Amino acid sequence: MRRQLQSASMFLRKKCRYGSRKLQFLLLLLMLGFLLLMVTTLNPPPSNQSKEGTFQPVEFNLREGNRMDFVETQELLDAQEESQQYYPLDGLSPFISLREDELIAAVVVSPTGRRNHSKARKGYRVVGQPGRRSEGRAGGDPEPQLLPLPLRDGQGAARGERPLGLDTHGFNEALSERVSLRRELPEVRHPLCLQQEYDSSLPTASVIICFHDEAWSTLLRTVHSIMDTAPKASLKDIILVDDLSQQGPLKSALSEYISKLDGVKLIRSNKRLGVIRGRMLGAARATGDVLVFMDSHCECQKGWLEPLLARLSSNRNSVISPVIDVIDWKTFQYYHSVGLHRGVFDWKLDFHWEPVPEHEEKVRQSPISPIRSPVVAGAVVAMDRHYFQNTGAYDSDMAMWGAENLELSIRTWLCGGSVEIIPCSRVGHVYRNHFPRAFSYEDAIVRNKIRIAETWLGSFKENFYKHDPVAFLISKAEKPDCSERLQLQKRLGCRNFRWFLSNVYPELSQPKDPKDTPKFSGKITDLEEPVQKALSNSLLAVTASPRTLNITA
To answer: Residue 533: what are its φ and ψ, rounded to 5°?
Structure first.
């Protein structure tokens, strides 16, 4: 009996061990199955999407340590009918399609969960939502989040070091990124400006900002400054023209950001246009009564727009500008000019500021009356949209940027208009410490000045060539074709430049004999081959080395 009990006990122990192992094995299988199910649910295998216009989710690094994941595109592109008419843009090549990474903004899915994929069409593309400023935001829609891009660790400029961004942008980008995108500027307007009341029926304005590789912070501060200071009823839209920027944040991240701002549109060019043609592209898409061209590193004072619109509503044949205050490139402190200044130029066609002369002050009725100015700066300029188009817009044969403000101002005066600065309108502008290499086009600026001289100065162009020998040499090598602008001059019945000197800017020194042939003595280096060929056929004695020309009369 005892032996039987021992045998039974051993059998039960073996059975328990076997059952326990079997149970453990089953539990392990269940756990593995559960884990496999979880992995499959959370990470489904990617499906093959063959439909045109659909995109895979994209990851884009704004800056290291600040990653934003974008999903499929939402309805962002303004629907344009194929029959839509555009204003002619002389000098621009036919519209061609952009690459999708330059064209489509990746954004969060709409609350309805539906996604609309816009098919790529030929043309410059507009990214942004239709303006709804007058209607306000839908109930419960959040305000756009302001995202100044954070710096990488160790990016801040220490005391005595060269400020970050100085080489790239010509100003202290590191400090700019620490300044609020919606900071409030000090009140610097004349007390009489604060007493002005404006009609509710002011014309509407389209603000056009052309930019190329602008710093994120200064670009968006410009946009928010306009939106925060301009009356909603008067601001038709803000049009950003991306002139083929290459910086990463100005691509998908900018499109995503702009898509959340009402009344802001983004046009991307697939070729480098320059400020002049970029502004013309923006003007062709504008619908406001007034065009305001603004640089991409500005900040607007309260009440800056109303005085401009009021002046243009009573005098449509004028080109006007606000008072341009200074935003320090290094500290980003706002400095306002106490005295009033006007824009002038010298015989080299270089722009300068000078105090308003006494004879001009005498004709002003009050301290806030418009200031007659021979020329205006190019940073911020406003005019009636139809007047701008009917009087020749910008000279589309000018290259990139430089001196376009002089051409616009001189043409306006000579062709029956006026040029003014409006004291009650003030806008701050970041004047760069220097022009970075990406924005430096000395050669283009000289050629633009030559076009001004050949079109508008008449016999006084010789004064320009006397003061700029390089321009004289280039003009002899490459005679510019100004026939279209000369035809415009005749069509508009414009006066000659002598009238300008007598009635607008008599302070400009006038040599005794403007028809004298320029005479030079000196050395000019690094001239292009066409210039050397022209010199070989000229009356000048030339001895040339591979990179240097010695010139004597």
So the answer is: -65, -40
Q: Tokens 């400023």 identify what position? A: 133
Record the pTM. Answer: 0.67
Cα-flanking dihedrals φ and ψ of residue 362, to 5°?
-65, -30
- Distance of alpha carbon 352 from alpha carbon 405, whole angstroms: 12
In angstroms, the CA 483 to CA 151 distance is: 51
Give the number of residues written for the chain: 553
Q: How far is CA 21 from CA 17, 29, 162, 320, in A?
A: 6, 12, 71, 91
List Cα–Cα distances, 439 to 212, 329, 349, 395, 401, in angstroms: 9, 16, 19, 20, 9
Q: In this predicted model, what pLDDT tens digit does every residue of 244-300 receive, in sequence order?
A: 998 888 999 999 999 999 999 999 999 999 999 999 999 999 999 999 999 999 999
Within a 13 Å sphere around the CA of 150, how many CA atoms are in the beta-carbon half?
8
Number of alpha carbons in the 13 Å side-chain half-sphere of residue 478: 16
- Compute φ and ψ for 530, nearest 5 degrees: -60, -35
Strand partners, 239: 208, 265
User: What is the distance of C-alpha 459 from the center of its chain?
Assistant: 36
d(CA 164, CA 99): 31
Following CA atoms 77, 82, 85, 90 in sequence, which dihedral angle do they give, to the nearest 10 degrees? 80
- Cβ 295 vs Cβ 191: under 8 Å: no
Tell me the residue ranges of DSSP E strands in 8-165.
58-63, 66-70, 125-128
* DSSP helix/strand/coil, 522: strand
Residue (of 473, 470, 471, 464) closest to 510 by Cα position:
464
User: pLDDT tens across 408-439, in order?
Assistant: 999 999 999 999 999 999 999 998 765 555 44
